[in-house]
UniProtKB/TrEMBL annotation, chains A, B:
Protein name, per record: Aminotransferase
EC number: 2.6.1.-
InterPro entries: Aminotransferase_I/II_large, AspAT/PAT-like, NHTrfase_class1_PyrdxlP-BS, PyrdxlP-dep_Trfase, PyrdxlP-dep_Trfase_major
CDD domains: AAT_like
Cofactor(s), by name: pyridoxal 5'-phosphate
Gene3D superfamilies: Type I PLP-dependent aspartate aminotransferase-like (Major domain)
Membrane-traversing stretches: none
Gene Ontology MF terms in the entry: transaminase activity
Domain Aminotransferase class I/classII large: 38-389
Similarity comment text for this entry: Belongs to the class-I pyridoxal-phosphate-dependent aminotransferase family.
Record keywords: Aminotransferase, Pyridoxal phosphate, Transferase
Amino acid sequence: MPQNTNTFPVSTSASEIEPFRVMKILGEAKKLQQAGHDIIHMEIGEPDFPSPPCVHEAAMQAAEQGLTHYTASMGLPELRQALSDFYREFYGADVEAQRIVVTPGSSCALQLALSAILDQDDRVLMADPTYPCNRQFVKLLNAEPLLVKVDHHSRYQLNLQILRDNWQQGIKAVMVASPANPTGTLIEQDELLKMAQFLAQQNAYLIVDEIYQGLVYQRPAESVLAQEDLPNNVVVINSFSKFFGMTGWRLGWCVAPPHLIDILDRLAQNLYLSAPTPSQYGALAILKKANLTELERRRKIFEQRRDRLYDAMQNAGFRLKLLPQGAFYLYWDISEWSKDSEAFCRELLLNTGVALTPGTDFSPGQGCQHVRLAYTTDENRLVEAVDRIAAYLQTKTTT
Amino acid sequence: MPQNTNTFPVSTSASEIEPFRVMKILGEAKKLQQAGHDIIHMEIGEPDFPSPPCVHEAAMQAAEQGLTHYTASMGLPELRQALSDFYREFYGADVEAQRIVVTPGSSCALQLALSAILDQDDRVLMADPTYPCNRQFVKLLNAEPLLVKVDHHSRYQLNLQILRDNWQQGIKAVMVASPANPTGTLIEQDELLKMAQFLAQQNAYLIVDEIYQGLVYQRPAESVLAQEDLPNNVVVINSFSKFFGMTGWRLGWCVAPPHLIDILDRLAQNLYLSAPTPSQYGALAILKKANLTELERRRKIFEQRRDRLYDAMQNAGFRLKLLPQGAFYLYWDISEWSKDSEAFCRELLLNTGVALTPGTDFSPGQGCQHVRLAYTTDENRLVEAVDRIAAYLQTKTTT
Ligand SMILES: Cc1ncc(COP(=O)(O)O)c(C=O)c1O
Ligand SMILES: Cc1ncc(COP(=O)(O)O)c(C=O)c1O
């Protein structure tokens, strides 16, 4: 088809949406790899493990029985019930199945929840650094993200005091993640409860992203839903992507207060009809107790990797400001080496073959002096990566 | 968790989103079925066939090889290439793989395309009746759907003349579907080209939903992308749901002009990360020539059903205004019997066990006097449904 060369007007708000800088690094890393270079991938935010076999076995079995049609828009009733049971058994949380909405990835859960809450020009408070899509979801609804710079003193998290100090008119919701991406840090449950109560007084919502739930180390996994007297303004986002290792299956969920369920259902019916059916049957299998042992084994591997990587960094003289309790990330302040994390990541990739994520993906404010290390590769490779980086930065200082 | 009974403010625009009326009918139909009634389902807009076995076999094989991670946000390169080849081979259309964005269902393709084009307060012209989600996608972006009533004189479709007659300031896009839901009618390719050219002069886009492509009868399937001199303002939406029978796998795509691709990619990265990986491998299999024969067999079954159902309706004295050329729907003007299609559908369900979709899902203007019949069930059951309806309406007239 001979293309007409006219271009037509595009959406101003969509044009402003930032790309993932990590995709550029990933692209360059792949090219180098194809050219024969030995690349250590620490840029990608997903488990290196494939999904456990019980997932595709169950998906296949369902498909063989002809279960390949749309499901109910809020998800298979038996999956919503299984999640409700899971909350009771593992978190001591009493969450009715009717409050659980199964979504295509937690990405859609985030979009659904924000769409149900926000009108245009509403404001949403979130930490800087934060998961990059959150800002964009808010902007796409013509609402306004308010970023509050946080640092290691609050473990890169919001807390009640920070909410109070930064409160302003028009804030309809606050978004937090625990454990968080890119920092791996938690918010303690009693703090979350206090934040929810404060927000309830302000008639605002607390959106708690628990998608790295289960991936916590040296302490039990928790859910804010287990808190007694939680006000009706808390929406919890979760996913089968990370702890359950099912990224490519695109399945998540959200738990919402009863008064939002009907709106969430209508949004789901219109925005995406239903979550992938094979994935839902796969998820039913992975929630079975016997199949969780593999996930616990993987969790332990992540814990070991965290410890090895953290130690290697400290030993190399790259002092990290804290040891994160969860997820699979370390957040590294590189200001000693560079004030341009994108250039720094490119430089490291070219000179050491180590691929990291520039902090600018997560933080407009201070991202230029941070990078994220994902321990989503073998322990020994992680240590080798630090050795390579250390050797390279050494040559730089001495020249 | 004792629920606090406070409710918190919800989004005004989201509250206005209409539910699918068909879900209510579906729920009632299922209840009656469980109570032992013999229900004929003609309300559901998806093929009754499960996805062909090659789909889950390929998905399973990929999963066994560990291919369960996120894919590139625009889709597996080999799937984009396979779609490009498909366009060349079956439609004689030259569509570069780089212009194809694989999405989680065409639902997300619609959302992506509209998000890339629209700013708030922009207007989008569409036919009344139309696929219900289109209005809602537009509203969620704080843009305004403009519905233009169409009837059998234009085969329930927009055309160049209707565009001219209804043109007004601020229209950024026109949405059409060919074949359409709920009417099953087509727009001829030369008309589509003229519409695209007219819109190009107005600096506006034409979004062509081809998701029922392949499901056309007594004529070859076509794509607007095969038109020469197509201006750069045409976005095509498509899906593996209907012709390919993969509804539950949630996989679709869009073909966009080059200047939109980068924005679509950034939107995809933020809105949903990537389409389901097993579904993408499944789709790769179904696009293989050998596997298309099963789809052709199914297409012929739909064609027979259309003819049987249409004849049965005519014979029963339910004169339909036209014989649709595609999809799997008939659109029936019931004004002779009722001016309240929702009540009419409920009444039919209770008295005859036949479940239909009220036109109000598709048309705020004239939906109250139309219903949609989906021929997504066995031929003989379709004829029985008409017999039951005829017998029931007979008793009504005579009493
Ligand atoms: C904090 C956080 N929330 C949500 C998501 C979205 O994940 P998914 O859509 O796979 O559930 C991610 C993915 O990296 C994340 O890091
Ligand atoms: C005209 C039309 N477009 C788009 C869709 C969305 O389908 P999917 O998201 O399964 O591709 C449908 C579903 O019924 C439809 O009828």
